[in-house]
Design a protein that fits this description.
Elements: E1 2-8, H1 17-22, E2 30-34, E3 37-46, E4 50-59, H2 61-72, H3 78-85, H4 98-107, H5 109-112, E5 127-137, H6 151-156, E6 162-169, E7 179-191, H7 193-208, H8 218-226, H9 237-244, H10 249-268, H11 272-275, E8 280-281, E9 288-289, E10 330-331, E11 337-338, H12 340-355, E12 359-363, H13 369-375, E13 382-387, H14 390-399, H15 407-410, E14 413-417, E15 432-436, H16 447-458, E16 462-468, H17 495-509, E17 512-518, E18 529-535, H18 540-543, H19 553-558, H20 571-574
Parallel strand pairs: 12-13, 12-15, 13-14, 15-16
Antiparallel strand pairs: 1-4, 1-5, 2-3, 3-4, 5-7, 6-7, 8-9, 10-11, 16-18, 17-18
The chain binds S-adenosyl-L-homocysteine (SAH).
């Protein structure tokens, strides 16, 4: 398996600078052992005018078979399976594939990062590059109508490469047999070497369509790291993502979601992770991770939609996705996108101001974005953030810089671990509670337990609940039909379902409820987020619910805990009147 990279030069800027960029001396042939065989790096030519570096990967077929066997076991990996099936005769030692991509990365790791300490500035200069791959499974025999671009062209041309793909006959001595499914590929372009290597690292396996190893979740990280700066805006980024992740849909969706966030963050000039706390932070390093199973990291697959609504921004932004869906994020007056998560927080803060709440619970506070917003409000004297996830709380504490807050500020906020399906004395006596994008993370049968713990036991005068509007999901391009916005969502309700639930809860616990859309309201499917504000003790006339339904039996029955008798659920009977004047 072979790849060569050539560049041109002049006396002032000799082509042999390629050696510095690749961190491999042009005068030496070097050998590296990789997990699938020996990699050789050498320079067939190394002159001032022209210099070519070559990587030859001598695949060890026995190691390959052994590995693919191990991986095929227990995993339904088509890649591993295919490799195992055709273990006796296959193209793996010859056709450029994920094996070559992995070898490229392990041999040219520093070059791929764009680092060149010996020649500062060199790595930042685009160079005329020619990449030759003598055998590439170019598109897996795709059928094309005349005039349609080939997969290789679609992948490489948008990145600034000129693509020449020449057919390779099956057997030169028998021309009648026709061409093989392999092509000789020549790519030329003026690019940064690091970008070229990153692109090859991602696109070789994409072209080949098979992977020699089981696609594990950390592949998403690898893809996004290598794709930084070019993948998000590639017109075929969805195709690339799916093929790279070998059609593991959950991973592909995760990657696409994060790509979209990255793009939006760019548009919005903020950090991707700010847009959507579903981007989990590793508690140790503070770096984003993809462990979507981490509790406390959930939100929509796409917190905002990549549609630019602004007419006055004047950017002429027609980037990919610009016309994909109506905006869940709308441009504000200055033409900037406002992420949905931020809109949600703004709506909550405004409603809390309306009722004059001073002591507020953020239930299921996640990484503390709302807590941070609440602390900006002078009127709010105390915020208690509660979450079941310690890693989310740790991230929240770090983001809020709790340990560095001045004493007076620090006294206003506390983060505690707690499960909302259990009554908790610490939650009593607050003016308001917020459940922002939390209820959908509970299994439906557990929801009555939360209802009791919040509306029955903690019983603040105001409760604000937000949850996705499932009807709106059709407006999200990256969300396959019938999927939830986040893998951890146990349900997503349409407007009627949410309304019915909220009205029932209000009736059970003696609250009134009002509904507020969050985000732009679509004429057909409504707003992306639905919000219900529950109040009690304010309008006694309407708040008088029927017979108190203490804690819904089914909920408490499944509770191991509540030793205390469920409190009656009418508003006035037991609730401390903490409503502030309007
Ligand atoms: N409110 C935050 C986070 C929403 S994600 C925001 O809008 O950004 C949902 C959060 O609810 C997660 O942090 C998760 O850990 C928490 N959660 C889910 N079930 C919970 C439970 N039973 N008790 C406490 N927290 C829970």
């Amino acid at each position: 398996m072979f790849i060569s990279i050539s560049t041109t030069g002049t006396a002032a800027h000799p082509a042999t600078d390629l050696g510095y960029l690749l961190h491999k001396h042009p005068g030496k042939a070097q050998r590296f052992s990789t997990s699938h065989g020996e990699a050789h790096v050498f320079y067939p030519e190394a002159g001032e005018q022209r210099c070519t570096a070559a990587l030859l990967l001598d695949v060890d077929p026995v190691a390959l078979v052994r590995r693919s066997r191990g991986h095929a076991k227990g995993a339904s990996s088509a890649a591993a399976g295919a490799a195992a099936l055709s273990q006796y005769v296959n193209d793996r030692p010859y056709a450029a594939s994920s094996l070559l991509a992995v070898a490229l990365r392990s041999v040219f790791r520093t070059a791929m990062k764009g680092a060149c300490e010996q020649r500062p500035g060199l790595a930042e200069q685009p160079r005329e590059l020619t990449v030759v791959l003598p055998a590439v499974a170019a598109g897996g025999g795709e059928e094309r109508t005349p005039g349609e671009r080939s997969l290789v062209e679609r992948l490489f041309e948008p990145l600034g490469w000129q693509v020449t793909a020449s057919a390779i006959p099956l057997d030169e001595t028998f021309p009648a047999w026709g061409d093989s499914r392999y092509k000789r590929l020549e790519l030329t372009g003026t690019l940064l070497l690091a970008d070229a290597l990153q692109q090859l690292y991602v696109l070789l396996p994409v072209l080949d369509g098979a992977k020699h190893y089981w696609v594990a979740p950390d592949e998403v990280d690898k893809l996004l790291a290598a794709g930084e700066g070019w993948l998000a805006d590639h017109p075929d980024h969805a195709l690339i993502t799916r093929r790279y992740l070998h059609r593991r849909w959950s991973l592909a969706n995760e990657a696409l979601r994060r790509l979209e966030l990255a793009r939006l963050a760019e548009a919005d000039d903020s950090e991707a992770e700010e847009l959507d706390n579903a981007v989990a932070l590793d508690p140790e390093s503070g770096e984003p991770t993809v462990t979507s199973s981490l509790v406390g990291t959930m939100a929509e697959p796409v917190a905002v939609v990549p549609a630019r609504v602004s007419a006055d921004a004047g950017t002429g932004d027609t980037g990919a996705g610009a016309a994909e869906a109506p905006a869940a994020a709308e441009a504000d007056g200055a033409g900037k996108l406002v992420p949905l998560a931020r809109r949600r927080r703004a709506a909550i803060v405004a409603l809390l101001a309306e009722v004059g709440a001073a002591r507020v619970l953020d239930l299921g506070c996640g990484q503390g974005e709302l807590v941070g917003e609440l602390l900006k409000e002078k009127r709010i004297t105390e915020v208690l953030g509660v979450d079941v996830s310690t890693s989310a709380l740790a991230a929240a504490a770090r983001k809020l810089r709790l340990e560095r807050l001045p004493e007076r500020q620090a006294a206003r906020v506390r983060l505690v671990q707690g499960a909302l399906t259990y009554t908790d004395a610490r939650l009593k006596g607050y003016d308001a509670a917020v459940l922002c994008e939390v209820i959908e993370h509970l299994d439906l049968p557990r929801l009555p337990a939360l209802e009791y713990a919040v509306f029955g036991a903690a019983r603040p005068a105001t409760v604000i609940v937000t949850t996705p509007n499932a009807e709106y999901n059709v407006r999200w391009e990256s969300l396959p039909a019938g999927h939830h916005r986040h893998a951890d969502h146990r349900f997503e309700w349409d407007r009627a379902e949410f309304r019915a639930w909220a009205e029932q809860v209000a009736a059970n616990y003696g609250y009134t409820v009002a509904f507020h859309p969050v985000g732009p309201e679509d004429p057909q499917v409504g707003p992306p987020t639905q919000l219900a504000m529950f109040r009690h003790g304010i309008e006694p006339a309407t708040a008088s619910a029927g017979a108190p339904e203490p804690a819904t039996d089914s909920a408490t029955a499944s509770e191991p805990e509540p030793a205390t008798a469920p409190e009656p659920a009418t508003a006035t009977a037991t609730a401390p009147e903490r409503s502030a004047p309007r």
